[in-house]
Each structure stands twice: as C-alpha cells, then as structure tokens.
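lol so apparently i was supposed to do this last week
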Amino acid sequence: MILVGKIVINGGRRLSGEIKVQGSKNAVLPIIAACILCKDECVIYNCPDISDVRSACEIINHLGGMADLNDGILTVNTKNVERSEIPKELMNKMRSSVMFMGVLLGMTGGAALCTPGGCEIGARPVDIHIKALKMLGADVVEEGECISCYSKGLNGCKIHLEFPSVGATENAMMAAVTAKGTTVISNPALEPEIVELQNFINAMGGKISGAGTKTLVIEGTENLHGTEFEVRGDRIVAATYLFGVAGTGGNIRLNSVKAEDMEAVLSVLRETGCEIYANENSISVWSDGKLKSPKRVRTQVFPGFPTDAQAPLTSCLSVAHGTAVIHEEIFENRFRHVEELLKMGADIRLDNRVAVVCGVPCLYGANVVARELRGAGALCIAGLMAKGKTVMEGTEYLDRGYVNIEQALGMLGADIKREG
Ligand code: UD1
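anyway here it is w/ uridine-diphosphate-N-acetylglucosamine bound
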C-alpha cells in the first residue's frame, strides 16, 4: 500500500449512502504485538491496510516472525521470534511500537528500543509503562532515547496506574500474561481497545478479566495457542465520517461499528442538531448541514470525548452557528489543523490547549498541509464542507490510519481523489 500524493477535493456536496467502517487501528496494533505471546500462528480478520499496520508487520518480521497482510486478512506467525531489539528506523516509522516492550520482555527476557522523543501531537513520555514493568520485576535502563529492559522472570503483583494510559495498560497486560501468578491493575484505561486486547488474549487461552472496568485481573499463563480473531470497526474513522456528514449535510449509514464505543461523539452530534439512529452494529446520521454549536467540549479518557476525534470535530464546528470552546485535555500539541482551517476561512482563536471556534457561514477551498493523522482526516472533511477546491498535502499522515479515504468518501458521493 503506497499511496502518498495529494488529496484533491471539490467541496459542497451532501453525503449519502452506506459503507462498512474499516477495522480499528488502535485495536489491531496491540493485537499484533500480543501475537508474540503464543509462538504460534494467528489469523486476524478485518485488519486495516494502513501504514501503521505495515510498520507493525515489519517489526514482527525483523524480530524473526512472519506477518503477511492480504485482502484484510493478517496472518502472523511468531514461532521463531527470538530477537528482542527494535532498531531506531522501525521505531521512527510508528511511535506506538513501544507497545512491543512488555511482550518482548516477558517472552524473550529483554526488550531494547528507542523512543523517538516527542511526536506530532506531544511529548508522549513512557514513564508509566516503565513503572508498571518495574513493578512486575523488570530492570530498566534508560539512556537518552534508548530503553533496555531485562528480566529473569516476571512476577504477578498489584499495579496502580497514576493515569489510565492506553499504551501503559496494554504493555502491563501483555507482560503480566507472562508473569508467575496474578497481576491486578487498578486505574487501567477503559477504552474499547483494552476490551479487544483482553478478548484476543483470552482467545489464545489467556485468563484476563475486568477490561472496561476499574480493575483488570491477569493470571499468568503459559503455552498460549494461535487463534482466529475479527477486529471491531474503527470508532475514530467512524467519528470522522459522522462529523463530515454533519458538516456537509446528508444521510449516511455506517456498518460494523458499535454505538456503545462512541456515545460521547454521538451525544455531541445530537447537540449540533443531527439525528442519530443506532443499533448493535451500525450507526445512521442525518444532518441538514445547519448545525448549532455545542457550548463546550473537553477531550477525556474513555468514556469521555476522544482526543482522536477532536480535529474532525473542530472542522465540523467551524461552520456551526454560535461559538464552541474545545479543550484538549489529553495531548499538549493537538491543534495543528487549526492554522490550516484558518486558511479556509474558519474563525478559530487558539490559546494553548483551548480553541474557541466561532462558526462561519461557510469554508472556502484552499491549499492545506496535514501534520498529523487525525488532523489529516479533519482537513479532508473540511474540504468536503468548503466551497471550491481544496488540495491537501501530507497524505502520508492520512495513510497511517485511514484505508483509502478517497474511495470510502467517494462511495458516499464526495468529489475527492488522489493526484500525483
Ligand atoms: C493511544 C492511542 C491514541 C490515542 C491515545 C489516547 C494507540 C496506538 N494510540 O495512544 O490514538 O490518542 O491512546 O486515547 O492506541 N502519558 C504519560 N506517560 C506515559 C504514558 C502516557 O505521561 O507513560 C500521557 C501522554 O503523554 C498523554 C496521555 O498520557 O498525554 C495519554 O496517553 P496514552 O493513553 O498513553 O496514549 P497512547 O497509548 O500513546
């Protein structure tokens, strides 16, 4: 999957129709790492063909395993995984490769990797991951950007996370599966991706309970076996499309996505005046394109409003009637799409982690540059809402998390294509 190029959008069309939402990026990435727990073959269905998944596969292959993605089916064989170090060039491709740390430590006795410092959306330290692994009995040496962990055998323990970090919860869960005895994690992340990781590890024969609640219990288990697993739909991709149709007006149905994973997003959409119909496995939205601003939205950990949906929300609210105040509470540098929306005629004042969005009657097409993944999705939907032509550069960010967005939105009636 090498797409890159520029995205060209002729805006102003209403969206309508029905599509299946791609599999979840944030669910499948830790699942790929967790395959190492079984030293066997796993088959993962509904796997999105995005560059972050390709990077995770490269890491598996580098470690001595085999990962192959074909037509949405990912086959991972980890029988021969013996290496425990991930070189800097692979870490640089996907920062979240830090999620291999716990599983490598547990399965090979060590893990050596580099965290490439701050990224597009913030500093992203890994101190909470490291504290959890130390509690389980790891020795950890940090030298500059490099982290080396060692252990002669992990032991189950009680771990309290000072903040419910998604990645730290996943790292601690995977390491705890390899530990002797029981680990109890209090204040874990509650995100649906944690439930998905629990379900996957249990399908391999693991014994984890409590995902989605305030206490996770992990029994150390040997000899996990390979399994088949279907990844749930991506709630952030779904949110991007829902905010898109809210802004353009129209009527779409998204299949393979659970409303229970995105109640905070649906609640904001309702506040803007959209009508939402949801059943177990699909969400439909209707919008006349004349939105009312919700007064205030704060990004929070699950079940609060997701930070990953903040950029698409900002695009959508830039054409809503009234003023909205958006607080970004999770990452410190996550408003980089705002300067691009200003080029399109939006009226947004930014003060550190707070954006005040005064709705304008319409946006105008412009040349814009994406600087991070969800900002790229946000600029695409701004282009759909705008009058005239928008050309977006920075598609390598888009391709980290959206499978062929131009095809998906094209099926809903958008005039969007990739050039160059
Ligand atoms: C995951 C998601 C990302 C999402 C984020 C929050 C994946 C691959 N990525 O990222 O899309 O935006 O959850 O829902 O699943 N923190 C620390 N120390 C740590 C760990 C985190 O201070 O050791 C801070 C981070 O800097 C950030 C906050 O905690 O400010 C949330 O981070 P975390 O929940 O860990 O996010 P990720 O797992 O990196």
